[in-house]
Specification:
The complex is a heterodimer of chains A (about 300) and B (about 650). Chain A is mainly α. Chain A is built from eleven helices and one strand, in the order H-H-H-E-H-H-H-H-H-H-H-H. The longest helix of chain A is centred in the middle third of the chain and has 46 residues, at about 115-160. With about 650 residues, chain B is an alpha+beta fold. Chain B has twelve helices and 32 strands. The chains are: A mainly alpha (about 300), B alpha+beta (about 650).
Chain lengths: ~300, ~650
Amino acid sequence: MSEQRGVLAEGARRVWRYQRALWWWFTVNFVLAMFSAMPLSLRLEKVAGHSAHTASLGVGFDMGAFLELSANPDAAFWSGTTGSALLALIFLVFSMFLTGGVLEAYRSPHKLTTGEFFHVCGEFFWRWVRLLIFLLIVITPICFLAYYISDWSGTLSDDAPQEKLGFWVDFAGFFLVLFLMMTVRVWFDIAQVRSIATGERAMRRTLVRAARLVFGNFASLFWLYFRISFLAWLGLAVTLWIWVKIPGEHSGLSALLLEVLLLWWIGTRLWQRASETVWFQRYADVAVITPEPAPLPEPELEPAGVPPSAG
Amino acid sequence: MRWFWPLTILPLVATLPCRAQAPAVFASNAKPPFSDRVVNYQIDATLDVSRKTLDGVETLTYRNLTGKPQDTFPFHLYLNAFQPKATFMREVRRDHPSFEWKEKNRASADVVMFEAEGMGDLTNQIQFISPDDANADDRTVFQVKLPEPVPPGQSVQFKIGFRDHFGEVFARTGYKRDFIMGAQWFPKVGVWWQGAWNCHQFHADTEFFADFGTFDVRLTVPQNEVVGASGVEVSSVNHANGTKSLTFHGEDIHDFAWTVEPEFHVFEDYFDGSAGKVKIRLLMQPGHVDQAARHMRIMMETMKRFDEWYGPYPYAQITVVDPPHGALRAGGMEYPTLITADTAWWMPEGLRFVEVVTEHEFGHQYWYGMVATNEFEDAWLDEGINSYTEAKVLDDIFGKDKSVLDLWGATIGEDALQRDGYLGSAEDDPMTRFAYQYMNSSSYGNITYGKTATVLLTLEKIVGEDTMRRALHTYFMRYRFAHPAKEDFLKTLEEVSGKNLRWYFDQAVYGTNILDYEILRASSDRTDWYLKKPPEEKKGVTPYHTMVLVHRKGDFIFPVDVVVKFDDGETLREQWDGRDRWVRYSYDKKAKLVSAELDPEHAVWLDKNFFNNSCMKEQSSGWRMKLAAYWQIVAQFVAQWLAWLA
């Protein structure tokens, strides 16, 4: 346990030491989302910028006014959905690009130069694309399982004699799916960490070896990942608890609070990455990277006539 | 199958004397009879809860008050709507193309014997008709031609043997596990109305219409069943075979519904109204017992307001049924002296779904139950008026802006919710469309409920809220236990208000015109604008020419108020009859415009767009930043979730 705590603490230390990644990640996330929100803001200004009826939206959240506004064809409220989805995809690509550099930064004992950082980013990008394809293949059955559980729980909610049975099945199903998803993520995370450490290009082989590693050390690795995830969810719960208590007119404070939460979520994800790197370095690096056999020392030729020891 | 009815009717007759000591049908101060009592139904029915079937014998005595001899009588067999070729299902499929038929929803009602007193067996005379759409596969209406007519003022007695097969609840009636809702379950005679028989087929978007009368219903069920029904229970007899027969009696009602389930938890309380004490009998699901107080509270509060505002509830009892999970389609429904509510185990207090549904269904005791309008043809008269009174009652109880939702900072009131429904189909249909002739089910719902409520809320601006309340009181007292039509209601509004409202009704009730006024432009310009070097602006000194341009965007003409505010604190109120397409107001003052606003009290609920009703010189950006910020945060969250794949 203490060793585990050491891994988490060391992971946190590396995230802190390499804060730039956190802030970059958050900034890009923020800016991309801003691009999706700005057109909406401009449209709303055009439709109701001078309207007194908007007062009820500023104080509290008047669903009646909101529904009317969102149904207004000039506001085209939901038209930004496609744009937002596209920007989310861009963020995914950005994240994939940055992952290599960040993992290397967490691994490396020395501070990477910008050139080194982006070199690793570029070097590993297409490997991550291949890993993403494998990931999608792996999680597809889990998605089907989630759909099936949801469908089943819906049927139970209607048909089972116990009214809450459907809910509990949904509840249990959620945790089952969450567990499977986390397991897959840990596996692929370790595959990425391993790939960075070994420079391995073959992603299928990396995945197989990472699987052996993960399932050979499943408890400690899952526990490592789970605890940080739990803190992320706890942060979400606490933030929402505070958020509903903030008076509606203090929307700036509400937004700030939610942005802190988003920063926390990125931070916890990077913390997972860093901790997995630490774990790998401590417990797997030696096993994986077989060091080159040390060159045998050159036999020293004793000069003729010189005594073996000088004395 | 005809053999069984003489046997089963005997116990019913045997129980009739019990009624002498039985609970009263009406509250103590009520003075029946209230209606013409055109029909008298005596029904003896045995329920097989395992097969979900019911065998019944109905003795219907019909008084011919039509003023002419009648030899043809139409009857409803509503349960036959739950068959794939029925008009009801056709229309469901038409409006919901992804709808798939499930055999478990199949239901049927078969008439196995039909006799008319003194005319013999007429079972062979039964003929299914489809007066609305000529669908030969629809078996929801049949008619029987008698060998000889029933003279005016005389009565005829029909004896009808029937067998019901309940399907799993699809709409209003049927079973779910041990729960059975017995609604529209017996052959019901049509209504002679406006000089003709009115007996429509059962459609996806129609409800019901029937004559007032008395009901004596004996229901035989297993002894473990808890039973709720219209009317009051007058006797209960246990049989050796493990069944029991419960007899219910109702007067001055036009339908009869019942429900059985062994698991019902019964709660009772009394409302003390102007007609006397009324028993509220609440049948709750075991998992919803913690919400019983919530149901009872809203019943009490609603009954109090209806009693004070519109008139007395004269019956001695009202039964509220909480359907089980999976049977919500049996919920939110009204029958005389029995209503079904709707809830779920997780329903938070701030989401007032329980209150909205329970209030609404009780309201139907007035607008449908007693003022028995034709729900096939004038659905707005019951659903719409009821939605309006729902808004008035709930707003009064919970506050105007949060009478439906007050949860986690989000709020919405009934008025806004009804208007939101109207906005969804504003131009599709007039309110006066027959219920089964609307464009689709959305339009039916949005117009019948939402638009009617919005039209009546807007009418308050013209006649005043108190006048509206008095008008509804007059309408209720005048037409209770009768079948008024649309003009009866509209003329009552005119009579009580003392105003000619035809201009409004033509547009709002009979038309589909859109009401949308806007402040097209509002600005202040210096009167010395032409000077190349005008003096520095000084508040209270510099003269301005202010112009406010008001525009009628829609074709609906309605008088509107315009409030213009200046920066010296002066407020001017203009009244425009709204007839022209636009009007311009001009002012020369030593003050600048602050704002121009149409209908600042938001009394014109019919206005399609509240956002263009005002123009403030100072932009307010807080709300916009707030919405944009929330959009952004959601977008960030979504992006982060997606990036989890990286």
